[in-house]
User: What shape does this take?
Amino acid sequence: MLEFFYSLDLKLLYFINHTLSNPVFDAVMPLLRGKLTWIPLYLIIIYFIIKKYGLKSVWVIGLALLTVLLADRISAGLIKPYFERLRPCNNPEIQSWLNLPNGKGSGWSFVSSHATNHFALAVYFIMVFIRHRGKYKIVIPFLSWAFLIAFAQVYIGFHYPSDVIAGGILGSLIGYGVGKLNCLVLCYRSGKKV
Assistant: This one.
């Protein structure tokens, strides 16, 4: 059974990393996973949080930071050292066919911390904004943002698809949990029902 899933993982990796390989993706995908790429988006989100929450925005932004801290510590600090799975780019069995537009990565592969962190933030922000706006139009943009970053991780050969899927699930659970905490505290303080 494990061999079947590993084989499927390799086939998906080959399709995303090798078959879809092209000069445009080779230039764009490394940017999507870059730390500085998303600063303008973070600033826009912070602006909307401050506009909506006023003084309570310190709490909401603090919980966003807690969300990333939890996601990163659980994925990079607990899970990766436990599984010690080689990244595809460092796996000698498959390096010959990999497209590596961003070079080789370091550290372990399972789970993807990029996927965990970004899905955690995406779900947290969805819960923050849906609570007050009641609009589900924000769900697709936030999840698409996290999905693009996770996809880029596979495209550049830093992760297997299973790494980003597991990271996405883990991050979503963390984001949901912290989002619920945010709602409980803000609803309790305002006297509204949760």
